[in-house]
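Hi support team,

I submitted a single chain yesterday and got back a structure, but I'm not sure I'm reading the token output correctly. Could someone confirm the output below corresponds to the sequence I sent? I've pasted both exactly as they appear in my results page.

Thanks,
R.
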Amino acid sequence: MEYVVRNHRLAVGTKYVDFEKSPNIGGAMAPVFLVIHYTAFGSSSNIAAYFKKPSAKVSAHLVIRRDGTIVQCVPFDTVAWHAGESKWVDKKGNSHSGLNRNSIGIEIENWGPLKKTGAGYVSWTGQPVDASNVTEARHKFGTPNGGWEVFTEAQVDATIAASLAICETYGIGEIVGHDDISPGRKSDPGPAWAMSSFKAKVLGRSDNGAATYIVRSPTGLNVRTGPAANFPLEPGAKLNPLPDGSIVAMIEADGNWRYVSVLDKNGTPSFSGWVHGGYLFEV
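Hi R., thanks for writing in. Yes, this is the structure output for that exact sequence:
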């Protein structure tokens, strides 16, 4: 399905998607980022209806249900309350805080992390989740291995289609997860969401494996032999510390630390080691 944006509303042809107006909004805004979330609820929970309650004090621009149905709750030129306390350094090195003021939020219906019991997997509410809809994965910011609900094919297709229309209309060139802008506080959309592939399809970039990051540290970034500051510097590093602007490919995460391969000017890995993830920003 091909979506378009008209009058800051999502539409298919001449027909707008369902609109359930949320009162939980701020003022006018010009969107710069697209933020991806999961709802942490099941199919029986109508999140769009919840956003209509003033007492909720939360909202998002779009809700995408498990069957791929899209509901809009806030016009795209209006602040929605989806990001909360958040910060991000964009690809040009500019710092942003409180991303509600310049981002469009998409909530995708999904339980998120699951608990494994003797009988199988259950959500945080205790509701059973079929094992065929579960993937075992580790969150990139260090959440222990565990079960995560898989996003449906219909959701993935709908999110890509809606995001294509949004990014084209507003010239958005950066897509982030809620976990990227609020690390440690939020875990959505989590490892079940193929973020690198999603961004490649929406932003028109090749999906060629590990995500690449740029080092943003005026004094350089130390490369260590393990995931902590008390590990010695990596003796095999050709450059240590890495200069500001170095490009790396992330291989593994452990808490706030990242095991990376440092790429040369041709994009070829030259050496590897552990660096603090707080100084890495996705290219």
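A quick pointer for reading it: The longest strand covers residues 247-254. Let us know if anything else looks off.

Best,
Support desk
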